[in-house]
UniProtKB/TrEMBL annotation, chains A, B:
This is Alpha-mannosidase. It holds the Pfam family Glyco_hydro38C2. Belongs to the glycosyl hydrolase 38 family. It catalyses: Hydrolysis of terminal, non-reducing alpha-D-mannose residues in alpha-D-mannosides. One of its GO terms (biological process) is mannose metabolic process. Its EC number is 3.2.1.-. Binds 1 zinc ion per subunit. One of its GO terms (molecular function) is metal ion binding. Its cofactor is Zn(2+). Residues 1-20 form the signal peptide. Gene3D superfamilies: 2.60.40.1360, Glycoside hydrolase 38, N terminal domain, Glycoside hydrolase family 38, central domain, Golgi alpha-mannosidase II, Golgi alpha-mannosidase II, domain 4. It comes from Arachis hypogaea (Peanut).
Length: 960, 960
């Protein structure tokens, strides 16, 4: 067989090479104390989509865009590792840290960690966030310390910060990301000296790379062992100069490398062999874990780092704060799917998980992929963004089927005995955001009634207004008791109609058959983890109101007030951006101004610093106010916040300039340069304008450099008042003036910003040849509270935004008595029970083995709310009224090991200075297996696997 | 271990891929009769130096010039072949066919074929000359049929020829390259439809190649099996349309591919699997041998092809005829080393080959490498040309040491008993061509005598004038008998002095200490395979002449005649390029005009067809005569040819234009557009100006398109006369007008010709910062004979040019009687014996096992000379007077199998038309093991391994 290789050789030549002597390289070297140890960490960074889709990267198609094939990496790395047991390699992918929500991060990490545990029996010990564009506190403490990591490594920190850390040898720190957890949230965190590539000096060894290979065959020309050893030692000493201890790490790889792993390992083998023969420094095959152990073993004392590493700039005019908002529609889609996934898993548990047949797995996969740092970030190419959306849509489709059939089984009362072939057909309306809901837009005039199941995935009872489009203007709503309830018919705003028609055609390929004239709105009341049923009919309305839209001429002077509850807003037509905000309960009476503006995207083409504004980078070039953006401001009678629904786009580009649209809400609060933004929707972090805690900031970009990622909200305060804004998706925002909050809501740019994506962020939607710039529709919410009272709304309403009510529609005949023949209301929990106000259930998921994964999250930080920032208890038994709990195992956050095992292994790093830890009792106590009460301290998230009596104990985790 | 691979995976994503189902591809398909069979021939074309040196290609260094690493290819191909026994791959390198001499081609092929036999036990059956720029008759019949090949494949033939062959389905032919051997020289020869790359349609699968990979995983997006199968079938049917039989070959690879072989085989596996499932065509892993067998099995009748495939043009203005002359200095160096290697091996045999210690192996290797189609061709980058020269110099150095010590042993008469530490120290003068010979430039005034050993590697006695530089003007020469012989002191021409000083400084780093004023010339007489000894002393000269150089003013009118023998040339100063050529013996009396001219190199930069003249391409843009080139014309008394030594260069480029210098020798012969050029120094092939035998030539380049490679010589004739020119190296030449012959002797070009080398052919030599365009010094020889009498000179003198006398120098004291204390003359053959005039010994080489490799070559074609084109016998016993021959095995030309075995296997192809074979008895008969007389028919080369009584029979070949 091997003969065939040579059967056609005509020449004499190649055997000169074949004959060269065999050299056995000694690659077994470990750490050598007293020497400078160069930890060679072979790694490949395999983006889960970026310039190509994740599948294209895997199979190596579409190489004209980027030469990359992960299949090559896997195939060849396995071969190379088998060939020498001393070799090591990491293949890594990683979620984003700015535009991701902590619940999504936990889900994604859990999926990965449990896969690794099941397939390889391995529990990861290290976070490897080398590429995300800035680093969050939640990543460090929650997705770091709380998943049992001993260390966390990353490549991208602010260039000014990096320079200072190099000088002070503080690239490596102990990062304490949580105020509430204190020292128990500490993790060793290493920022790399430059990036995540090999050090300068020629150490790239991919097929066809140009670094000089080690030529150690004396029979050939150009023998260069000494030269290359010198190069190695020089690079090592240079890095040692900026590093504490005598351990340095070399990240030997970069994006999609190791396609033929042998090319790297051949050289690494030689370097280890010859460098150690030389003896000046010690080179070894290492991993981040080995490196971490070596660092720990030195007993060094480390500088402390708190808060986070946002925003990230790699250059004076290159603030990576544009991507906080880039692709706002995808960002919203991801968030919408996250909430749906949470709800669908609950219903999947109620009906019993099916491994084949509709389940939530493909939605789980799609969401996990969407968390990638070139997915939800908006920094991927357009065709890749389309791919992420497609995956989400496919995942949704399957989950939607599961949800519909589970709801059908629940209303038919076949559960928990089993759910097979329910009769009731439920429809859902994923395009409700663009007023398109065929299920509700039905003709009810001939004795048809609309049945609406309203599912609440929160573990609290919930009263909320829902809105559905209807074509009839004479409808009544009845609740589960058959009682007619108050409802309101709101005329469809004209601006929505064009949007609806265009996007339904774009997404579904046809124009909607009807044009519903009204939104039907009514308040629903739904039990925790449960549903209520409402019917809509043409029965005579009583006690319902029909609304109309007031239009006014711009020259008409008028004042009008909205708000039927405690909160009232008064607008005046001559200054339409201003309103008077009055809450008669809390006695808040403030002037609020809300405006839209755009930043002109910087065009660096002929400039000294050619940096453009683009998908990653926000580099504004002038601020311009706009007065024609469309929005709807809503107040709900029982709520005390303002809901603003905006429609932004298409952003005009006829002038050849990209634009980034923001809204600015101004108050008179004396916020003293200070504002607060959430970290991945969890902890709030104090931000000070034009200031960084870790270094003396040189301000180059006074706008972009003050932008931060927002996933939950942003607030400011003065000595009396808090002003909070909550968001429906990940956006960038800031407070650029005292009293003011701004959110960037949409971006359309015509130039690439030279950070790799090689495409302008110019999103369009097309119906045949009619391509229009993307229109983005979204909501934000604001509220003014007395100082100290805002957290309650931010936390509670934040959960409601993440977990919107899920609506399912069916039809019944007028004569059918649905409420008596079906289960009209349901709660998955004990009907007497609800979770405390400060606790949320963020995961309820049946695992493959029938056990249940449960996560409970305390929603408040220490000191955040005077009543709710307290240790609180949850009764597990009440959560599973129909089941008998056999055992509860507390797990690490990613559920791949028992919590007690994880705690036992935790490293206790030495920290510089007297950084006292005042919160000694920052955690809930152990769970008594009889009482089954779970205590949660502020910000605590506890993860359990719960085994019921009808389940076998699983193999995987029983031996942990 | 494999766990390390994944220990750092944080994500969820890659396992989507890892989980994909395992598909077992069926790759075992063989030929299927009745279907179109697509033979997939996986191959990598690994140039033995081109843009990088051979070692750089091997280890993969200098990748900034070209990403290429043969070590990757070998490592990964072996793995891939081991993984599936159905897979096959050829790694190929190949000598050039235009600028190579047949003796070098034989040596190179023998080295390779014997290596393959020894290492792998394999005898190649196929010639794979896919890249050389045109194809020679000698390659087809001598390095093809005569090495036992059944077929020969190549990529490059004239674009007009290719177009016609496609139309006529005659890309595949039976090539009969020898007039003398007739049908026994036939070989199946396939020109590829385009080149040696995969067919159009996206079938490149190197790492990062952009062809669509087969995506057959239904769990991923972009499944494309049907599309790719259709692409395959389309490409196959397209090729089938221009091919006879239902077998087509796909060359699945190209330059330096298969660096990670798995990337190709993964796709080829899938293609074979899915295409055969589809069933429209049959795809199989194949080799050129399997393909050849399949072709043969069809019993098809094939068109015949004679002569060769020169010149090659791939475009109307892209005639690859420049490289026939490119890098004339390297071409000469290679030829000089070839002759030296032939001589050194003889001496190595006489002294007994040493496996360690000085031997000819490294010169053999260097010469083999130098035959590469981007080496002696001159189409490599400058740094690579330097590398080839360095290798030759290193090989020479070792061979020189062997030659000196063997000669010392021979003169000390310690052989054949053994040659250890001889006392005599011999020096040689490799820079004699630039008049630099420290060994002869010694001060003889103080009783020192110069001893000169003159070794003749031809198997004929030889009388010839030798010339050495001396510093004394009062020297006498004595022969082996102590008799003073006639000698001549010729003043050193001034033009040589500057050249000598510059180049000695450039090559050796110092200026020569002496400036010898004279060439000492005298006639030596040397026995076959032997030497004579001459001494030079300051003893009083008798019967010697001292010459002077005549200079004349250009306005001075004069005639002068040179020539002391039969041949006389008369020049007149008023028309210096003309001479009158008179041979008083043969009665030839002709006017001869010799001129230099240059062609302006075409600059296509702003032209419609941007093709430049360059290293490969000859595209002249105007012809200009020069009258200042320097040359010396010599006539030797006992010879009847004119020797012209020219010095051309530095070619001026101050005008920004490259130039290509030719010399044109014109006579009044009525040659009727016809001329004859040798094929690799062996057969002469008839050429007709502006005409091709195989198609109706469209003439686009009337100069470049009529150029042919010349290694031995070129001649024209009319009905009375022959005019022959012989060359000292490979050059390009033509006869562009009747009666005229031209040779291109030097080229200096300022533009790259876009055929890949990416460098202008602008050779310079530097002494410190003084860089000058390369000066080329060389010789050609011409002679005019009566019709039918030229061959004798061409053949005999051609051997003398190839095998110049080898000079070794020593010193002795005036008082030492060297001739009596040393062996003054020697012949390796029986002293009574000499080879017949029509037979040359082209190889005499001791093999590793002590046996001897002997090649005897008949020098005449059938009908070439009325006396010498006859079957002739050689007595082997007389060649080895000191040894007892135990056995003589006749071998294939490349000595890797017994001739009888080879003949048994030979395919008998069916040929179209009644191409009768008139030369039935075109071969010598078998060798009687007693008589040991070897018969050689015209053009026959017979190869023997001869075992002597003191040798063991080798294992390798006894089982053949």
């Amino acid at each position: 067989m091997a003969n065939e290789l040579l059967i056609l050789f005509l020449g004499t030549i190649l055997f000169l090479c074949v004959e060269s002597k065999y050299i056995a390289y000694n690659t077994s070297q470990g750490v050598v104390p007293g020497k400078l140890n160069v930890h060679l960490v072979a790694h490949t960074h395999d983006d889960v989509g970026w310039l190509k889709t994740v599948d294209q990267y895997y199979v190596g198609s579409n190489n004209s865009i980027q030469g990359a094939c992960v299949q090559n990496v896997l195939d060849s790395v396995v071969q190379a590792l088998l060939a020498d047991k001393n070799r090591k390699n990491g293949g890594m992918c990683m979620h984003d840290e700015a535009s991701t929500h902590y619940i999504d991060m936990i889900d994604q990490t859990t999926l990965g960690h449990r896969f690794i545990k099941e397939e390889f029996g391995v529990t990861p010990r290290v976070g490897w966030q080398i590429d995300p564009f800035g680093h969050s506190a939640v990543q460090a403490y929650l997705l770091g310390a709380e998943v049992g990591f001993d260390s966390l490594f990353f490549g991208r920190i602010d260039y000014q910060d990096r320079a200072k850390r190099k000088r002070e040898k503080s690239l490596e720190v102990i990062w304490q990301g949580s105020k509430s957890f204190g020292s128990s949230s500490q993790i060793f965190a290493g920022a790399f000296p430059e990036n995540y590539e090999p050090p300068p000096g020629g150490f790239y060894f991919e097929v066809n790379d140009v670094s000089p290979v080690i030529q150690d065959n004396l029979d050939l020309f150009d023998y260069n062992v000494e030269d290359r050893v010198n190069d190695f030692v020089t690079a090592a000493l240079s890095q040692a100069n900026i590093t504490r201890t005598n351990h340095i790490m070399w990240t030997m790889g970069t994006d999609f490398k190791y396609q033929y792993a042998h090319t790297w390992f051949r050289q690494l083998d030689k370097f280890i062999h010859y460098v150690n023969k030389d003896g000046r420094v010690n080179a070894l095959y290492s991993t981040p874990s080995i490196y971490t152990d070596a660092k720990y073993a030195t007993n060094e004392t480390w500088p402390i780092k708190t808060d986070d590493y946002f925003p990230y700039a790699d250059n004076a005019n290159a603030y990576w704060t544009g991507y906080f908002t880039s692709r706002p529609a995808i960002k919203r889609y991801v968030r919408l799917m996250s909430g749906y996934y949470l709800a669908a898993r609950q219903l999947e548990f109620f009906s019993g998980r099916m491994n084949s047949g509709p389940n939530t797995d493909s939605l789980a996969d799609a969401l996990a992929i969407a968390q990638h740092h070139d997915a939800v970030t908006g920094t991927e190419q357009q065709h890749v963004a389309n791919d992420y959306s497609k995956r989400l849509a496919i995942g949704y489709k399957e989950a939607e089927q599961l949800v519909s059939s589970t709801l059908a089984c629940l209303v038919e009362s076949t559960l928990p005995a089993g759910c097979q072939n329910p009769v009731t057909m439920f429809q859902q309306c994923p395009l409700l955001n663009i007023s398109y809901c065929p299920a509700s837009e039905v003709d009810l005039s001939h004795g048809k009634n609309l049945v609406i199941i309203v599912y609440n995935s929160l573990a609290w009872r919930r009263n909320e207004v829902i809105r559905i489009p209807v074509i009839d203007d004479n409808v009544a709503v009845h609740d589960s008791n058959g009682t007619e309830i108050e409802s309101q018919l709101l005329p469809q705003a004209e601006v929505f109609e064009g949007l609806r028609n265009f996007y339904v055609k774009a997404y579904l390929g046809h124009t909607p058959p009807n044009t519903p004239k009204y939104w039907l709105a009514f308040t629903v009341s739904v039990p925790p983890l449960g549903f209520s049923t409402y019917t809509v009919s043409t029965a005579k309305r009583t006690g319902s109101t029909k609304s109309s839209v007031n239009t006014y001429q711009s020259n008409e002077k008028a004042r009008f007030e909205v708000g039927q509850g405690n909160l009232k807003l008064t607008f005046s037509t001559d200054e339409e951006t201003h309103s008077n905000y009055v809450n008669i309960r809390s006695m808040m009476d403030k002037q609020v101004e809300q405006k839209y503006l755009y930043y002109s995207g910087y065009n660096g083409s002929h400039q000294k610093d050619p940096q453009n504004s683009g998908a990653y980078i926000f580099r504004p070039n002038g601020t311009y106010f706009i007065n024609h953006e469309r929005q709807i401001t809503r107040l709900h009678k029982e709520k005390e916040h303002v809901e603003v629904e905006f429609i932004v786009g298409p952003i005009p580009i006829e002038d050849g300039t990209g634009k980034e649209v923001a809204t600015k809400i101004s108050t008179a609060l004396s916020s003293k340069k200070t504002f607060y933004t959430d970290s991945n929707g969890r902890d709030f972090i104090k931000r000070i304008r034009d200031f960084r805690t870790d270094w003396d900031l040189e301000v180059n970009q006074p706008i972009a450099g003050n932008y931060y990622p927002i996933n939950l909200g942003i607030y400011i305060k003065d000595n009396k008042t808090e002003f909070s804004v909550l968001v429906d998706r990940s956006v960038g925002g800031s407070s650029l003036e005292d009293g003011q909050i701004e959110l960037m809501v949409h971006r359309r740019l015509l130039l690439d910003d030279s950070k790799g994506v090689a495409e302008a962020l110019n999103e369009t939607d097309c119906v045949a040849d009619d391509c229009r710039g993307l229109t983005v529709q979204g909501k934000f919410y604001y509220r003014i509270d007395p100082l100290g009272e805002g957290a309650k709304w931010r936390r509670t309403f934040g959960q409601e935004i993440y977990s919107p009510l899920l609506l399912a529609f069916s039809e019944k005949d007028d004569k059918d008595d649905w409420m008596n023949s079906h289960v009209p209301t349901f709660s998955g929990m004990d009907s007497s029970y609800t979770l405390p106000d400060n606790i949320a259930m963020i995961t309820l998921q049946e695992l493959d083995d029938g056990a249940v994964l449960l996560r409970l999250a305390h929603l408040y930080e220490i000191g955040e709310d005077k009543d709710l920032s307290v240790k609180t208890s949850v009764e597990l038994k009440k959560l599973f009224p129909e089941k008998k709990i056999k055992e509860v195992k507390e797990m690490s956050l990613s559920a791949n090991q028992e919590r007690t095992e994880m705690e036992k292994k935790r490293f206790a790093w030495k920290v510089k200075g007297s950084f006292g830890d005042e919160h000694v009792l920052s955690r809930g106590g152990p769970v008594d297996q009889k009482e089954l009460a779970v205590e949660l301290a502020p910000m605590e998230i506890r993860t359990f696997i719960i085994y019921f009596d009808d389940n076998d104990m699983p193999n995987l985790l029983s031996d942990a």
